[in-house]
Amino acid sequence: MLRHRPHRVARGVLLHPAFGWLALAALYLAGAVLNLLLAISTARMWPLVLAVSLMVVSGLCVTAAARSLRR
Predict the structure, then answer these.
(1) What is the value of pTM for the model shown?
(2) 25: pLDDT confidence band, cut at 50, 70 and 90?
(3) Cβ atoms of 60 and 23 closer than 8 Å
(4) Going by fewer Cβ within 10 Å, which terminus of the chain is more open, N or C?
């Protein structure tokens, strides 16, 4: 009699729950760097405020990724 063997599904890096959070953090960080460069080149204040807020959101995404790694 044949036994039923379960199929093994290889979990790649892209399927890991932390990957989405880290990718989102990288995008927010890239936006923050661009806003920082814009603030330096134009000598205005509003891009700097946006850059700081994007850095905070990026840090929150990294925190969420770290929490999903612990599970």
Answers:
(1) 0.74
(2) very high
(3) no
(4) N
Contacts of residue 56, Cβ cutoff 8 Å, sequence gap at least 6? none
36 CB neighbour count, 10 Å cutoff: 17
How confident is the model over 31-59, as pLDDT tens digits? 999 999 999 999 999 999 999 999 999 99
Answer whether residue 59 is part of any domain: yes
Number of structural domains the chain divides into: 1
DSSP string computed for 13-69: STTSHHHHHHHHHHHHHHHHHHHHHHHHHHT-SHHHHHHHHHHHHHHHHHHHHHHHH
